[in-house]
Amino acid sequence: MAEQDPFELAQDLSGKHLIDGAFVPSQSGKTFDVIYPATLEVIGKAAFGEKADVDAAVAAAKKAQKAWAALPARERGKLVTECGRRIEAHKEELARLVALETGKALRTESRVEASVVADAFTFYGGLASELKGESVPFNPDMLTVTLREPIGVVGAIIPWNVPMMLMAFKIAPAMVAGNTVVVKSAEEAPFAVLRVCEIMNEVLPPGVFNILSGFGPECGAPLVEHPDVGKVTFTGSVETGKIIYRGAAEKLMPVTLELGGKSPMIVMGDADLERAVAGAVSGVRFTRQGQSCTAASRIYVHESLHDAFIEALKAKVDAMVMGDPLDEKTDIGTIVSEQQYERVLGYITQGKADGGTAHEGSSLPGDGKLAKGYFVRPVIFTDLPEDSRVISEEIFGPVTAIQRFSTLDEVIDKANDSEYGLAATIWTRDLKTAMEGVRRLEAGFVQVNQNLVVQPNLSYGGIKQSGLGKEASLEAMLEHFTHKKTAIINMT
Ligand code: ADP
């Protein structure tokens, strides 16, 4: 199939929300610029959503919800599966569009995201008949059962780092469960998700999903506060997560919050060095400029492997090609925005001021059109003092800090000494050490000798400041997008 040029697509999708099955501008007529972070070219103008637009989208979702929920679950499932099939057919175009608005390298990152999006829809579409209740042995004269019922209208607020995937993990289970949804896209990346919704619009009835572009306070907050929104599911920063939680408390509304992380990677002395180094490259997510909630931004290496590990990691990172995200040769694209770029550079300056040694790998793409782009060279810090903010705070950039340790107890204590608890990995050939790591590491997602990306069927979510509730998996659909109703039928 002929793929549409991503620049043209961004233009075509400019100035529009998708409400009640139709593309509409903001009621105010306002828009905002969206840029290509590799060149700072304006690629399009997104509709600037505000309360009036939120009201229209929620009204459409509310109007559509009863009929949607009244469909047999498997019918809803079939329609959501069909969305997945069509998204799959458009995945190259979606990958190019998301690369354009986020600066994520096409080959190493954006194509991976586009594939997971299609998977999430087909996975949840197939789970429709799992929306089952239970029968409860209570009294022989009474049939007691539980039913899974939809919540109603679900608000989904998403970030820019993997926008299509995080939208899919929210709206596919919400819709299969019989809810209708209103999405608020991230201001940096409004177009790829809008294109996904345009594809869904070929299949689903009007109002079942609606998508608005806009900023947090003007568009996200009114969605959280809207009296007809019965649940909000959010991925983003801890700070914004807490604002949303407070807004939800006013309405006693349930929320799912997927927040930040400072995920430790532990390399034991008996680890396979080569595998662990490859795991660090994928774990820090250098290819995405470290813009991942689960980025291995603290690496603890046993003293016996410490120096060899650092040398091998430097060599790997130096060999990576930073460049135009749309270029097939590129391994590493850009940071998403000026704000994030300045923030990441601030942490690198801080780490150096704290006395850390910074190895800056790869090389900047040079001049020409890319000279102004938000490229940051990957940084491997060593010799940082333990109280450096680079070791404790989430950076969301291509920066990791390597520290040495000698015993398992010591490293587990260090790894757990964090306000976050999202992900962790441990690299060892010893089964007992691996199991100790799995049991003792305070994180929602622990992996041994690997760094798998998030999968639709694996429950994902953090503890401590990393969030509330789980995303992906059957459990997420049942626990987070339905109410459980208990019914007692007295047969006497
Ligand atoms: P990031 O640092 O990744 O941009 P944010 O948490 O600020 O993280 O943003 C994630 C999403 O939350 C974006 O869609 C953003 O517009 C939205 N957002 C920001 N502030 C608010 C708010 N006060 N209420 C609702 N949504 C918000």
Automatic annotation (TrEMBL):
Keyword Transcription regulation among UniProt keywords: no
Name recorded for this polypeptide: Aldehyde dehydrogenase family protein
Homology family: Belongs to the aldehyde dehydrogenase family.
Keyword Oxidoreductase (UniProt): yes
Domain annotation Aldehyde dehydrogenase: ranges: 23-486
Record PROSITE patterns: ALDEHYDE_DEHYDR_CYS (PS00070), ALDEHYDE_DEHYDR_GLU (PS00687)
Entry annotation: catalytic residues: 258
Organism the protein comes from: Aquibaculum arenosum
Pfam family for this entry, one: Aldedh
Keywords: Oxidoreductase
